[in-house]
Amino acid sequence: MNAATLRALHEKLSARVALSPVRLCNFAAETRDMDDVEAGEQALIEFAPALGSLTRTGAHHWIGDARQIGASRSDGMILEAELVDAHGSGLQLRHLGDRWRLTRIRETEGESCLADEMVLLGRPPAPQKLRYRRYWEIVTGHGGVRPVLAVLIGAEAS
User: Fold this and answer.
1) What's the per-residue H, E or C state across the chain?
2) What are phi and psi of 126, to 5 degrees?
3) CB atoms near residue 49 (< 10 Å)
4) Which phi-psi region, left, alpha or beta, contains residue 143 (left: φ > 0; alpha: ψ -120 to 50)?
5) pLDDT (tens digit per residue) in 1-47
6) How far, CA to CA in Å, does 59 sit from each of 13, 53, 62, 73, 75?
């Protein structure tokens, strides 16, 4: 079963059950590990985020632009960050004990996977609603899908 067939089945089922819309797409996720937090912080700044969250050891911040990343240094080491730029690409940074993992996610041309969108509740200081895009891949031989990753794509105040 391919992504187009699953999308068609989803459309038929959506006529009977409330499901979020899905669409065909591709995505690219590029990951690299770093030994020091300064390299991770510099990558966040260079990404030029439009919005996102940044968690340091001493505080959680809602980011509206890259200047806020450096301005929050006094709150300690970065534990994680989840950002989106003006083009809809995502950047995630996670502290993994002795290193940091940076993952850049962008949508690409193609129809090998499915995507849908969901809304989660934000925690202060983030807006009340956070919008995410989930990417699903086909499970070969099983006729189903499994979630691969989710990326922050926006936020709403209410």
Assistant:
1) CCHHHHHHHHHHHHCCCCCCCCEEEEEEEEEEEECCHHHHHHHHHHCCCCEEEEEECCEEEEECCCHHHHHCHHHCCEEEEEEECCCCCEEEEEECCCCEEEEEEEEEEEEEEEEEEEEEECCCCCCCEEEEEEEEEEECCCCEEEEEEEEEEEEECC
2) -70, 160
3) 26
4) left
5) 677 777 777 677 767 776 778 888 999 999 999 999 999 999 999 99
6) 44, 11, 10, 10, 6
CB of 148 within 8 A of CB of 138?
Answer: no
What token pair was written down for 58? 């001493």
pLDDT tens digits for range 85-104: 999 999 999 999 999 999 99
